[in-house]
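> @MW can you paste both from yesterday?
MW: sure, first one:
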Amino acid sequence: MSYGLSLYAVDLTLARGAIGCGSKQLLDMIGKTYGQHITRDDEYFAYEIAKGAPTGHEALRAVVEGGPFDKEHAFQYGYAYKRICEAYGDRLDGNSFSPFRSAWLMHVDEGLTSLGMTAVSVSPFMYSLPRPLPRAELPGYGEWTPEQCAQGLAQWEASTDEQRQRLDFEVLEAIESCVGWMRQARSKEGYGIAGFGS
């Protein structure tokens, strides 16, 4: 099975703060901006919706209102939270990670470690959603805080050309993408990275 990553440079505190904030303004803004995308996603998930999953708009409302959540259809709340990160943040290029097989993230993490880049890893982008959202199989979710991004960039700068040349070309290309994400996040005060694997 192949996966992909969707990544956003975003103020993680702001994005997490949207969970349970109850903001009608946020719901209206996302509905107006992404309404067609949400409708298209509902068509894709029509089978699950017919079996009782919330629609995209219903899931978004539940996330913003802090529940209630139907654990059986947790995936919809993950995609709703992804919309929130998209609304608040800047989309990052994840081409080095789409599509990929499950072992790929582990290979990239091994490459990061070999360069001394221990502040960040890509495998957590397949972990679970922030609380209180229910655990979903997909999408996976992970974060790099602003501090992790700063430390990861410092570790990249401390690595040598010799270390980098020892890496498989595709792994190095993926790590260079990670460096680009961190640089983009660091260009805005308080921004980190939110990653969704699906």
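MW: second:
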Amino acid sequence: MTAGVISGEGVRLALVPAGVASRTLAAAIDVAIQAVASLVLLLVDAAVAGSADTAALAAVAVVESVLVIAGYPIVLEWSTRGRTVGKLCLGLRVVRDDGGPIGFRHALVRGLASLVLEKPGLLFPFGTVAGLVTLAVSPREKRIGDLMAGTVVLDERAAPQPLAVPYAWVPYPLQPWALALDLTRLDDGLALRLRQFVSRAHAMSSPARMTLGDDLLRRVLAVTSPPPPPGAPTAELLGTVLAERRRRATPSTAGRPAARPAPAGPAGPPPAPGGPFALPQ
């Protein structure tokens, strides 16, 4: 099954959710690594503790096991933007529902849900069965942790090419404003609405594009600062916010603006009517 998601640049991507088999094999690899790590820690504890209190040694071993089981996926998925060793081997990656990279909150929710609800433990076998059921019946093959965190696991090796949808860029006159933007209050929900609007604007009627674009711009400007330059078209402002947010979320482009090349001079080509998405003003 192919899942349409909107990337940070406003590009609709046809991506394939990871299947049960590939996710199970990736999980098996991760479990094997966690088991080896736990065994190594246990041997180190036994060698260091010597003839110390066995109860204290057991308590330390339990704490270390929990840290390995819960901390391994949380730290790796957060630091590698959605991958563990098992997922890397199988070509899988965890992303947000909107296709963007996950943050610490997403990794934390997934890791804790897996530890408490899905892996053999307090709720076994009910939690494990529930996780398998949700994975099997979900349209995007989500487990409980994915449903709680708002994430989906994609099979990158099976992903087709991006579909033709307008690309977000920062017009040259708006580059200084883009670099000064404070986007800390622009949450994932509003960003998702912005990306969805950008991807669908070309199929909307002119009145709908104008109404929805103006309403979305008011919402975006209410949670960002400083205010934009006066007279800038709605389409260019929305595209600037979208492209700049994506740039800051991508380490490889963090040092340069997501900009379209500046025109050569007064005789250079004029910008496309209506801005980067050709939205009527």
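> thanks! The chain has two domains: 3-158, 172-253.
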